[in-house]
From TrEMBL:
Superkingdom: Bacteria
Domain Zinc finger CGNR residue range list: 139-180
Lineage: Bacteria, Bacillati, Actinomycetota, Actinomycetes, Pseudonocardiales
Alphabetical list of PANTHER family matching this protein: BLL6575 PROTEIN
Protein name: CGNR zinc finger domain-containing protein
Length: 189
């Protein structure tokens, strides 16, 4: 699902940034160069032109990831709206059509002179705004796996996702199965 009609995967970038900075990815413990490389890889993986990013992109992306996390941490739609509105209030919005780098015309939400960090900030804020305005808090949140601090955004048709990954979903299912087996006395380990 493309929530904002942009050429990047802004919603995926929001999730990846939060998870890269959060405790679930080990992002806090990584060496500076490795963390900066991983943050740049998030840009590339989600369709942003990382080569246009300044060398010191990592602190700005880390700060924005912490702001994005506020949307994933709430469980009430009113709280999500407040968190999204705070993000939107902090971005510069000047929509225009662009055909940079040989691409067909597409919508940018930032002015032509905006750098890649500003474009990412604006498009991720808009992606979360669209997600919350269309689905409330039913399609995003913190991973339901015990001990996992990562986040997810559900873009599936059935809207059943509650885990950041298949690994967390499987681990939780196995733990639940074992707990049921212990409770019934069947002795499954």
């Amino acid at each position: 699902m493309n929530f904002i009609g942009y050429r990047s995967d802004a919603l995926g970038a929001a999730v990846a940034l939060v998870n890269e900075v959060g405790a679930g990815s080990g992002g806090e413990a990584q060496a500076g160069d490795e963390q900066a490389d991983r943050m740049r890889s998030v840009l590339v993986a989600h369709g942003y032109l990382a080569e246009q990013a300044p060398d010191s992109v990592e602190p700005a992306l880390r700060a924005w990831a912490r702001r994005l996390r506020t949307v994933f941490d709430v469980t009430e739609v009113e709280e999500a709206a407040v968190a999204v509105n705070a993000l939107l209030a902090d971005v510069r919005v000047e929509p225009h059509l662009s055909n940079h780098d040989g691409q067909a015309f597409h919508l940018h939400y930032t002015p032509p002179e905006a750098d890649v960090v500003d474009r990412l900030r604006t498009s991720t804020a808009f992606a979360l705004a669209m997600l919350v305005s269309e689905y409330g808090v039913d399609r995003h949140g913190r991973c339901a796996a015990e001990g996992c601090a990562r986040v997810y955004a559900d873009t599936s048709r059935n809207a059943a996702r509650r885990y950041c990954s298949s690994a967390c979903a499987n681990r939780s299912a196995v733990a639940a199965h074992r707990a049921r087996a212990r409770a019934s006395g069947s002795g499954v380990r």
